C-alpha cells in the first residue's frame, strides 16, 4: 500500500510539472506576442476555406494531428507540445494554403509592428507620474499569479485525496472474517471427493483423448518502415481480420490485386471482415501505421508499426490447417 501511495504522489508531481511547464510556456510567449498573433488562426482558417480544404484533408497532407490544427486556428497555442512545434506547424499549414509562413512567424514574434516613434518631451509632472508607474514585467507576473495559486490549490487537493484513499486501503481487511470457515469447509469437501474418486476405478483416458489442433502462428519474414511480409500457419477458415483505430485511420484489403475491403476507422472503433476461403495471400494497407491495431481470428498481429505515421503494406501468406 505504501508503494501505491508513493506512485500516486509521483503522478501528482508529474501533473504539477506539466501544468507549470505549460504555464511558463504561456508566460514566455508574452502579452505582446499573444496580441500580435490573434489573427494568425483566423488568417489560416480563411485561407483553408478559400482553398476548399477540409481539416481531415489538411491532416493527411501535413501529417499534423487534427486537434493541433484546430488549436492553431483558434489561437490556442499553449495546447501545442512546445514552441518549436508551434512554429513548425504554422509554417506547414501556411505552405499548404499558399501563405507566407515566415511572415506569420514574424507576426507571432511581434516583428511586424511599426518602429516606435520618438515621444514628445514630457513635463515635470508627467515625469513624476511615470516614475511611479508599474513595471510591465511586474504587471505581467501579477496577472499570472491567480493561475499559479489555483494550480497549487489543485495539487494540494489531489494530494489530500490520495492520502485519504491510501488510509482507506490500509483499514480494509484483506481477507473477510468468514472466509476461513469457507476455506475449511472447502478443504473437507475436496478431501472427501478425493477419497470417493480414489475408490472408484479410473477410466482409461488414452483412447478418449483427441489430438489437439495446432494453434495458429505468425512469423515475420521481411519488415521495413513501409512494408512487411508475414506468414500465417495453421489458419482456420474463414479467416477474420479485425481492425481497431487508435486515431482516425484508413484501412484496406486487396486479394489478387483487387480491393475487396476499405474503411475509415474513428478513434476506438473496431471493424471485422472475412477473407475468401480460397485466399492464399492478402495485402493489408494501413494509412497511418501507428494508429491501427490488427487481429487475425481474434489473435493480435504484430506487424511492427512502431511510431510511423506513414502508410504501411502488410502481406499475409496464409497456410490453412488441414
Count of helices?
A: 9
Gyration radius over CA: 32 Å
Poorly predicted spans: 30-37, 173-190
Shape: flat
* Structural class category: alpha+beta
What is the percentage of strand-forming residues? 15-25%
What's the rounded overall pLDDT mean?
A: 78
Arrangement of strands in the largest sheet:
1-2-10-7-4-5
Q: How widely separated are the two ends? A: 52 Å
Query: Topology as H/E string?
Result: HHHHHHHHHEEEEEEEEEE
User: What's the story with the biggest beta sheet?
Assistant: 6 strands, mixed
Query: Tally of extended strands?
Result: 10
Fraction of residues in helix: 40-55%
Describe the structure.
It is flat, with a radius of gyration of 32 Å. By secondary structure, it is an alpha+beta fold. The protein is built from nine helices and ten strands. Strands 1-2-10-7-4-5 form a six-stranded mixed β-sheet, with no helix packed on it. Helix 1 packs antiparallel against helix 8 (136-171) and helix 5 runs antiparallel to helix 6 (101-109).
Amino acid at each position: 500500500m505504501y508503494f501505491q501511495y508513493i506512485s500516486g504522489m509521483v503522478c501528482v508531481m508529474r501533473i504539477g510539472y506539466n501544468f507549470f511547464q505549460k504555464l511558463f510556456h504561456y508566460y514566455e510567449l508574452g502579452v505582446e506576442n499573444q496580441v500580435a498573433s490573434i489573427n494568425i488562426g483566423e488568417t489560416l482558417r480563411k485561407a483553408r476555406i478559400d482553398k476548399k480544404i477540409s481539416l481531415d484533408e489538411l491532416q493527411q497532407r501535413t501529417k499534423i494531428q487534427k486537434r493541433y490544427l484546430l488549436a492553431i486556428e483558434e489561437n490556442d497555442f499553449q495546447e501545442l507540445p512546445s514552441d518549436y512545434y508551434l512554429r513548425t506547424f504554422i509554417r506547414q499549414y501556411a505552405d499548404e494554403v499558399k501563405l507566407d509562413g515566415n511572415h506569420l512567424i514574424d507576426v507571432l514574434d511581434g516583428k511586424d509592428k511599426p518602429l516606435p516613434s520618438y515621444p514628445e518631451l514630457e513635463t515635470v509632472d508627467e515625469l513624476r507620474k511615470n516614475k511611479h508607474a508599474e513595471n510591465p514585467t511586474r504587471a505581467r507576473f501579477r496577472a499570472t499569479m491567480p493561475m499559479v495559486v489555483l494550480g497549487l490549490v489543485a495539487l494540494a487537493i489531489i494530494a489530500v485525496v490520495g492520502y485519504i484513499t491510501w488510509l482507506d486501503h490500509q483499514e480494509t481487511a484483506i481477507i473477510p472474517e468468514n472466509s476461513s470457515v469457507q476455506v475449511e469447509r472447502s478443504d473437507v469437501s475436496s478431501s472427501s471427493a478425493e477419497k470417493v474418486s480414489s475408490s472408484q476405478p479410473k477410466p482409461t483416458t488414452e483412447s478418449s483423448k483427441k489430438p489437439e489442433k495446432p494453434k495458429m502462428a505468425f512469423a515475420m519474414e521481411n519488415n521495413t518502415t513501409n512494408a512487411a511480409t508475414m506468414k500465417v500457419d495453421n489458419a482456420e477458415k474463414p479467416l477474420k481480420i479485425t481492425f481497431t483505430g487508435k486515431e482516425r485511420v484508413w484501412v484496406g484489403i486487396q486479394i489478387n490485386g483487387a480491393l475487396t475491403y476499405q474503411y475509415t476507422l474513428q478513434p476506438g472503433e473496431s471493424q471485422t471482415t472475412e477473407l475468401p476461403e480460397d485466399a492464399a495471400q492478402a495485402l493489408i494497407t494501413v494509412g497511418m501505421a501507428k494508429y491501427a491495431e490488427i487481429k487475425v481470428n481474434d489473435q493480435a498481429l504484430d506487424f511492427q508499426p512502431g511510431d510511423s505515421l506513414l502508410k504501411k503494406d502488410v502481406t499475409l501468406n496464409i497456410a490453412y490447417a488441414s
